[in-house]
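Reviewers of the previous submission asked for a worked example of the structure-prediction workflow described in the proposal, so we include one complete record here. The input consisted solely of the amino acid sequence. No template or homolog information was supplied to the procedure at any stage.
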Amino acid sequence: MILSMTGYGKATATFGGKKIHAEIRSLNSKNLDLSLRMPARYHEREMELRRQLTPLLVRGKADVTVWTEEEAAAVPAAINAEAVRAYAEQLREVSRAAGIAEPADPWTVLTRLPDVVRTEVRDEATDEEWQAVAAAVEAAAEAFQAFRQQEGAALEKKFAEKLDNIAALMAQVEPFETLRTDKIRQRLEERLAELVGIDYDRARLEQEMIFYIEKLDISEEKQRLANHLAYFRATMAEGGAQGKKLGFIAQEMGREINTTGSKSNLAEMQNLVVRMKDELEQIKEQVLNVL
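From that input alone, the workflow returned the following structure tokens.
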């Protein structure tokens, strides 16, 4: 099964009263463009995380975000004694200077002032915490991959429908081939009949007409197009990152359809070729979404 280049996955792990969230998003891009955002204390492990994700992402514009939520009770706190003493002295001085009474409950006032209560946050993550981060990223990656598979299945179904349509349209061309050669022969003979008084070699004319009609034969184009359609299906069945390969096959399909159109010389055949081009164009647009 083919995979979509676009994807989304999110997961959460817990560690020591802390929630660790990981989110992966990706959009279309010819090459891998990985943007990684996470708290500063995890930065020293960034290359490890990139090595973990690169084989999964393969290509595309990917955004990976890791962030944490800490429970209030889990964050160690301490009273800043120096700040408390300084604020208390200032309260007394301001009260005396303004001639107003000091607060009845100074602690209520002091604890609301900046820097009185400090929370202590570790600057470095332990190995155990990093294992929790890696687990969250891995779970997000699994959800991300499942999303890609789901979208890839929808793309594969769409491609199969378009391939069937092209094959059916090419089959509709066949009845017009004999009609086309008969009309070409008739048109040439009518033009020659208008040339009064001019003698020509009938046998030579027949040879030239045969040569001309053979140049308009599309048997090879039909066979090559059938081969390309089969190869496209086989490549989808291989699964994995096949987007570029499918794009190349679609280009080759376009060559055969275009050549068929240039050899048509019949309105009915040209109309069918236009419809084949429309189906192929839709394939080319969607191939850009394949990993």
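The chain has three domains: 7-70+126-149, 76-119, 152-287. We consider this example representative of the routine output the project will generate in years two and three.
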